[in-house]
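$ fold --in a.seq
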Amino acid sequence: MITRGLVVSALVAASAAAMFAASLVRAALPPHIPVVDSTAPESRDTAGTPTPGLDERALRLAAERNPFFAHRGAAPPVEAPAEVAPPPMPETVKVLGTVVLNEKSALAMLQQQGSPPRLVRVGQTFGSWTLDRVEPGRAVLRGADGVELAVLVSRPGR
């Protein structure tokens, strides 16, 4: 038996489906772009300033080449900023481990390629670098020119 409530519910569901379909169609269509005839005389805006007519070719080109997509075209070349030379750093320095007992007592086991590992306390030199501070898992070295270099433990947990 079909009741009045069932008929009303069916009508509401059908109208909701129709409105949803209409909004999907509206969303899928491209927006309307008015084309102004380039041969039209100049018009004036509300302040009285003359505004030239829009070029139809330019409008069509703008509509075809969406400026918000990356494939639009190549950007003009940009000059690369001048590279700052990195400080000379011992590329062969490895931090094998760190020990931090307290703020005043910390050390790191450092190694340069081709030499045995060495325990270095904060304030001691290692090659051309001075061990500035030690944190769990990393050592901070300071060069003679004041440049800091933070080196992480090369293989933590081993």
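$ fold --in b.seq
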Amino acid sequence: MCVEMTDRLIALIERPASGTAAVRSIASRFALYVVARRNEPVSAIRLLSLALLTFGISLAGCAGTGERNASSLRATPATSSLVVVECEAVTRVLFNIVRRKEVRGGMLLSADGFTRVEGRAVSNLIVFSDVPPGEYSLARIDTTWQPAPLCSGHPIKCSPGKVFSHRYEIPADQLRRFAVNARLGEPKFLGAIVLEGDHVPADQLTSITEEGVKMAFSTSNEAEVRAWKQFVQIYDGHPWAVEAQKRLTKLRQ
């Protein structure tokens, strides 16, 4: 039976169009068969196939937010500023496999500490719209983490893991590093962030300086071009997309 299930896994790997639900179902059953028959010989190529499938599931099961909030821009260039952060959040699980956390949004804090602006995630961008002109810093990143599905019983039944809120705060002494000057009618790129945190199965609020948290930050032209290009594609036709295209053209000159 173990060999039979492995053959089905290999067939799925060779057919990338297979549904994620089917892949998860078969993978879960295969994992239980391996545990139950751990003394049976399994070839290296079959174990490699399982590893590749596990990696594929980790990517498919933790995709970003897509364009779900693409119509949620508030205000226009005539009345406010707009700030964009490119953000990817990841964690490492079994066998050091990298899985994505879902970025949900973030918060900007004004230099005087009195104004907070909440941003929402669209694809791998955190978009802060309707930002009053002034100096701000990125003060928080909001993500969620969903462990792998839980499978048990006979016949095997799988249920989705609980979704946990993982929020990351930037301490006051580092806010200047993530500062941006928002100006009326101008789209502003704050930077590109890759955040790596623990996969704790609980809601948590963590500082980026705590052990187990790593953050890479870039304000390069390449990162800004990438962000505005995606923004224009998502919000095509919106007045902010027009301004973003102007900025993109200027960066490419």
